[in-house]
Amino acid sequence: MCHSSHDDLDIRTKIRMSGIKGLQGVVRKTVNDELQANIWDPQHMDKIVPSLLFNLQHVEEAESRSPSPLQATEKEKESPTELAERCLRELLGRAAYGNIKNAIKPVLIHLDNHSLWEPKIFATCCFRIIMYSIQPQHSHLVIQQLLGHLDANSKSAATVRAGIVEVLSEAAVIAASGSVGPTVLEVFNTLLRQLRLSIDYALTGSYDCAAGISTKIIKEHEERMFQEAVIKTIGSFASTLPTYQQSEVMVFIMNKVPLPSSQQSIEAGKAGENRNRLTQIMLLKSLLQVSVGFQCSNMLTALPSAFLDRLLSAALMEDAEIRLFVLEILISFIDRHGNRQKFSTISTISDISVLKLKVDKCSRQDTVFMKKHGQQLYRHIYLICKEESNVQAHYEALYSMLMLISIELANEEVVVDLIRLVLAVQEIAQINEDNLTAYNRCALFALGAAYLNLISQLTTVPTFCQHIHEVIQMRQKEAPYLLPEDVFVERPRLSKSLDHLGPEVFFWQSKISEVLGGSGYNSDRLSTPYIPQLTDEDRLSKRKSIGETISLQVEVESRNSPEREQRAPAEEITYETLKKAIVDSVAVEEQERERRRQVVEKFQKAPFEEIAAHCGARATLLQSKLNQIFEITIRPPPSPSGTITAAYGQPQNHSIPVYEMKFPDLCVY
C-alpha cells in the first residue's frame, strides 16, 4: 500500500496514507511488546524502512503542486510525506542500542539502490531526521555505520563517495553535541584513508592500478571535489570537539604526514614523489582546517614538542605550497584574538591605532613556551626567508607571523630577539650569499621595514620610532623599491642596483641598540647579531657543552678562591671556545655511534667462540678490579698517632672489623 502507483492521484494518496498508518499502528503495537514478533528483526526492518523512505522521496512532487493558501494546511495534514516522516521519527526514537544497526542498514541500501547519494539532498535530509530522532547516546553507532559504508564504497564513483562524506559531515556535527563515543579518531582515520585512496585514484586514472581505463581527466576533477569534501568534513567535525580532543586529532593527522626525517615511508621515483607531495598537501590542508577552529590559551598545550618538531620540519621543504600551509597553520595557532586579518597586507602605516589591535599581557605559560621553543621558531623563520621560491603569499604569512608573535607571545626579551631576527633577514638581502633574485631581496627589505615600523609603535620608544621613520622616509625618496608599497603589488617596481645602496636606507643594529638600550632594553643582546642554530641536535649538544663548561669553571673558581691572587687566570669563554666545544662534542658523538655500530655488528656476525672468549676476558678483568676494591675496603684504619703499621700491599694479620672501630661522636648519626 505504501508503494501504491494508482493512476488517480487522490486515490494513490489515500492508499499510501492508509499503508503508512498501518505501519505506524504495527510499530506502536509491537515495538515494546515482548509477546509479539520482534519488529527490529532485519526481515521486518527491510520492509518497513524502505516503505517510509519511498514516501519521503516524493516531497518535491508534493511541493511542486503548490496548493492555494487556504488549502495548504489541509494538504499538509493529508501529505504521505509528512506522515511517513513522523512515523520514521517515532520508530527511530524507540530504537534501543542493539536495534540501531538493523534500522540504519535498510536506509543505506535504499540510498544505494536508487542512486540517491549523488544529489545528496535527500540523503542528507534522511540522516538529519535519523540523528535528531534517535537517543543521543546512540549517535556514534550511526557514525560507525556510515564509516563502514564509506569503506565499502571505496571503489565507487567519486560523486557517490563525496555524497556519503557530506552526509557523514552533517551526522558527525549533530552527533558531537551528544555522544561520539570511541569513534573520534576512527572518523579521522577513515577519512584520511579515503583521502589517500583518492590521491592514488587521481594519479593512476583508475580504481584498479592494473586496469588501463583512460578516464584520467574526468576522474581527476571528480576526485579533487571528493578530496575537498573530505577536508571540509574533517574541519567541520573537529570544530565541534572539545579542546583536548582537537589537540589529539591534530597530532594524529600530523603523524600521518610523510616526512623525510620521520618513520613514515617515503616512496621513491617520480610517481612516488607526486604521491608523497599530494599526500603532504592534503594532510596539511586537513590540519589547517582543524587548527582554524582551535582555541587554546596555553601554547604549551596547543603545540607540544613532538608535534611542533614535525610541523617545523615540513616548513623547510623545497615545495613552496607546503611551506605556505605550515606558516598558515602556525599563524592559526598563535592568533588567539582575531588579529590575523589586520596584517593581511604588508604596509608601513604611520598610525597603528587604526588597526584596533586586541592586545593582552603575555602570560606566564606564553613566556615559558617562548623560552622553550622561541629559538626554534626564529631559526625556521630565518631559513624560510632564504628560500628563492617564495612569492608574495609567503612574505605576507611571514609578516603576519612576526607581528602575531610580537602581540600574542612577546615580552621584552622576545621583542629584542625578533628585532635581531629581522635585522639578520635584512642582512640576507644586503649581502646576498644565497644569490636571491631582485624580487626576493626587495621583498625581504620591505618585510623588515614593515615589521620594524609596527614594532617601533608598539614599544612606544620615541627615539626608536624616530630612527625607523627616518629610514622609511629616506627609502621613499631614494629607494622606494625597498618598501612594501612598491614591492607587494601586482606589478612590483624593482631595482637591479641593490649592491650599491647607501647606508642611510638601512636599519642599523648599533643605532637601534643605542636607542632601545636607553629605554631599559637589553642593549648587549640587541647589539649581538642573530645567528641561527644549525640543527636540533646541535642545539642539544650546545646546551650540554655550555653547561659543562660553565660548571667546570665555577668549580675551579670555588676550589681556588682562597688563593685567588696566586692562581693562573681562568680561560675566557668566547664564541670560538663554544664553537670548538660544539664541534668536539659532535665528533665524540660520531665516534661513540661508530663504536656502538661495530659492537652490534660484531655480536651479529662473529663466531660464538670469539664472543665467549671476549666476554670471559671482560669478566676476568671485572673480577680483578672487584678484588682490589675489596682489599682496600677491609684494610684497617690508620692508628691514632698517624703512623702506618704495615707497608702497602702486605697482609694485615690483626685487622679490626668495621663494627668494632671507634669513631668520634660527631661522626656517628
UniProtKB/TrEMBL annotation:
Transmembrane segments: none annotated. SUPFAM superfamilies: ARM repeat. Keywords: Cell membrane, Cytoplasm, Lipoprotein, Membrane, Palmitate, Phosphoprotein. One of its GO terms (cellular component) is cytosol. Residues 63-82 are annotated as: Disordered. Its main location: membrane. Residues 73-82 have a biased composition (Basic and acidic residues). One of its GO terms (biological process) is protein localization to plasma membrane. InterPro entries: ARM-like, ARM-type_fold, EFR3_Homologs. It is found in: Cell membrane; Cytoplasm, Cytosol. The keyword Phosphoprotein applies. Gene3D superfamilies: Leucine-rich Repeat Variant (1.25.10.10). Component of a complex required to localize phosphatidylinositol 4-kinase (PI4K) to the plasma membrane. The complex acts as a regulator of phosphatidylinositol 4-phosphate (PtdIns(4)P) synthesis. In the complex, EFR3B probably acts as the membrane-anchoring component. Also involved in responsiveness to G-protein-coupled receptors; it is however unclear whether this role is direct or indirect. Component of a phosphatidylinositol 4-kinase (PI4K) complex, composed of PI4KA, EFR3 (EFR3A or EFR3B), TTC7 (TTC7A or TTC7B) and HYCC (HYCC1 or HYCC2). Belongs to the EFR3 family. This is Protein EFR3 homolog B. It comes from Athene cunicularia.
